[in-house]
Amino acid sequence: PSGVSDGRPASAWATESDAASLTVLQGGFRTWSAQGLPERAEAVRRAAQRLTADAANLLRGHADQALTRLGDRELPGPTGESNCLRLHARGVFAVLAQGALERDTAAAIGAALVAGNSVALVDAAAGSALRAAFVAAGVPTEAIELFDAQATGSVLRQPALAGVCVVAGAADFARQVLRVLADRDGAILPLVTGAEAQRADMLWRFCAEQTLTINTAAAGGNAELLAGAAMAAAEVNPA
Question: Exposed, middle or buried by CB within 10 Å (0-12, 13-18, 19+), for 235?
Answer without folding.
Answer: exposed
